[in-house]
Design a protein that fits this description.
By secondary structure, the protein is α/β, with parallel strands linked by helices. 35% of the residues lie in helices and 24% in strands. The longest helix is centred in the first third of the chain and has 22 residues.
Length: 335
């Protein structure tokens, strides 16, 4: 196996794909899910009967968005900002992994009930999802300015500190659960360092619940989640001139109660060799060998508050549904 020359290979996914598929056990980063097709498939997943996460979070937002905005805006903080000569004491919304921002409409509407104008910065690796978000939001909300940002937010958010006024950073959908615990802490610390004193974070987390609810959410009867998982291989085929045969892989979703996480894999159904031509590399897979593609950790409220505290945030309020399946936490950068 010859090492690829990444100076020649221009695809931004080249290094991560090579590193992930040449180690044991093999793995691929979840961000590879989100090409145009993957983004469309994920939107379908959010509407599946088994996938409780999106509708539960949306219901919490529908009931409490006004309270969330009022708490995040912090009227005392706005008065202090104005007294300090801040040209724009209004709240701005920044969403990481925004996708099509369908749930965010509820917060946008609440924010515009609270103030006459609003800037919204959706950040996502999928340009097609952001284009859809822009098309859906433009014209629906007088006073709204949408500034889409195509970027991998995991690389840093240093530009946020330069935005004027007070900010509410949105990290919804329990995306924090896709990170290993140490990585989740590092991600939250990065968010904290990118915000100014008085700014706030609204964090979505999926809570621990019985396996008979969790497992179907990642193994739906229609096979949409399986198609979403396998599409990662189609993405690599296109970007790196590879020849993964999607029919030779099985979608696997398991609940690991010891680690409190759902684990997602692509399992090879036969011995096979895959060519990644742009990387001048061949990948050998045995029958039954798995490529790990995602974890989804499930939290308790106590653990979430501990992680936020360790990252330098001050937890202020938590909203949840009646069943206690999902939670949204407001935390602030201390002033």
């Amino acid at each position: 196996m010859s090492a690829p020359n990444f100076q020649v290979v221009t695809s931004p996914i080249a290094s991560e794909v090579y590193d992930g598929l040449t180690r044991r056990p093999k793995s691929l980063p979840p961000k590879l899910f989100y090409d145009a097709t993957g983004s469309e498939l994920f939107e379908q997943i959010t509407e599946l009967p088994e996938y409780y996460l999106t509708r539960t979070e949306r219901a919490i937002l529908a009931q409490h968005a006004a309270d969330m905005i009022a708490a995040a805006a912090d009227s005392d903080g706005r008065v202090r900002a104005a007294a300090l000569g801040c040209a724009n004491p209004d709240l701005s919304l920044i969403e990481l992994g925004a996708g099509t921002a369908s749930k965010t409409r509820l917060l946008i509407r609440a924010a515009l009930d609270h103030q006459s104008r609003l800037s919204f910065y959706p950040i996502d690796v999928s340009r097609s999802a952001l284009d859809e978000a822009l098309a859906n939001l433009n014209g629906d909300f007088p006073g709204l300015r949408v500034v889409p940002v195509v970027d991998d937010y995991s690389r840093g958010l240093g530009q946020l500190t330069k935005l004027p006024g007070r900010k509410l950073l949105l990290y919804l959908g329990s995306s924090i659960g896709n990170f290993e615990p140490m990585q989740a802490g590092a991600m939250l610390r990065m968010m904290r360092s990118s915000l100014n004193p008085g700014d706030a974070l609204l964090l979505g987390t999926d809570l621990v619940k019985p396996a008979n609810i969790l497992i179907p959410a990642y193994n739906d009867a229609q096979g949409v989640t399986a198609a979403f998982n396998k599409n990662m291989l189609a993405h690599i085929n296109r970007e790196l001139d590879a020849d993964f045969n999607l029919d030779h892989f099985l979608h696997v979703g398991l609940w690991n109660p010891e680690c409190s996480r759902i684990e997602i894999y692509l399992e090879s159904t036969r011995p096979q060799v895959v060519n990644l031509r742009h990387l001048n590399t061949r990948i050998h897979l045995n029958k039954g060998e798995r490529i790990h593609t995602e974890n989804s950790y499930k939290f308790t409220r106590t653990i979430v508050n501990a992680i936020l505290n360790m990252a330098g945030f001050v937890p202020e309020q938590t909203w949840t549904d009646e069943k206690g399946w999902f939670a949204l936490h407001l935390a602030r950068v201390p002033e």
